[in-house]
Model the fold of this input.
Amino acid sequence: MPTADNAFTTALGLILTLDPALMDIVRLSLQVSLSAVLIAALIGLPLGAALALWAFPGRGMVVVMLNAFMGLPPVVAGLMVYLMLSRAGPLGQLGLLFTPTAMVIAQTVLVLPIVAALARQHIEALLGEYREQLASFGLGRARMMPTLLWDARVALTTVVLAGFGRASAEVGAVLIVGGNIDGVTRVMTTAIALETNRGNLALALGLGLVLLLLVACVNGAAHLLGERARRQMG
Amino acid sequence: MSDLSQPYLAQATTAPMLPLSLDGVRFSHRGQRLLGDITLTLGAGRSLIMGPNGAGKSLLMRLCHGLLTPSAGQIRWNGQPLSPALALRQAMVFQRPVLLKRSAQANLTYVLAIRGCPRRLRKPRAQEALERFGLAPLAQRPARVLSGGEQQRLALARAWLLAPDILFLDEPTAALDPAAIRAVEEAVNQFHHRGTKIVMTTHDLNQARRLADDVVFLNAGRLLEHSPAERFFDTPQSSEAAAFVRGELPW
Done:
């Protein structure tokens, strides 16, 4: 396939020369996904820990909902945020639709359930082990939380990395709320979809390679962390 | 005797906690009575709780320590019900030590931190406790990869830093080899000589003979006997205790 072959060479060229158009797209992608993951972690980790620590009426429902939302299709998350932010929606006056902020919100909606649900599972398992000892130290639930979050740090880091993988690889949500506007809201995944349609395989392939590399790095980091922890902690 | 700065405890620490008295204490779970009714008074010294498996030994200690709430009856410390301030003057060492996923030293500085010890004093005090229990070379090792005996000694060092008036030990030597058992027993005696009241469960008759000042004997959730150690081992009052001392009661 000479065209694909040709495209591949061009793609490598774009990456190696740090093509400005390509770099802009990569930069925006990272900005949006990292912001979303940061916000999701800041809310999701304490939320997951709180769900593990406190029993309250309706807790089961919340847990089931969170678990269900882990599999939320990105286009549905995008649609929900679109409806909120569109001119006629409740938050329409903010004028956020088709901005990077809207994309951050959509990806946060996508990642938050993953972080919170998995954090709850890990913290609950750890709590089963620690509860009596921490209670014996005289700690109440609120004071147990930082101890549990810190001692589950390895597992929770993998959780956050999984959330980042999900955010950086999805197309549907950012496409709907961002609109794939060149230079404003165009990220790697939406650009790949568009360039492939337009027949600009070189740029699509170049972006695809960068994305693949990124996802591989994230998974590699998660794996190394797990291995190191197993060696050190026994 | 407390070597921790606990200004908020100043008032509580001055009042003696003993005797510990239980009055008609009962514990039921899902309609099944697991323990009771227990009426018992423990004074100073080393009290060993003995009895076969399922007798309710661990349950009794958890009730006294406040980890469980009795279904009926009252537990009083020198006439007072257990308060948060009194709970902080107790420590417990479990059969399987629960150590945090941190270094041995960090496990010790952790308890100093939660009890409000100033940061600059934490490491020196932790080091002192590590040395006291022969763990100094292991300070930087992850606590979870230490041997069973080392882990139990670390749990004792941690309890030492809490400077408790009462130390509960739930079969602390059940899974240890003879050398590690001796180390734990020496540690228990260090607490005893510091004036800490010891309440400990054990299966091991020889260990009980070595350590006990008085023995509480439980069987099937009921208190059968509480007597000075010598009397318990020489002339047990109940037939169950007599069989237990002869090694005939299965555990």
Chain B has ten helices and ten strands.
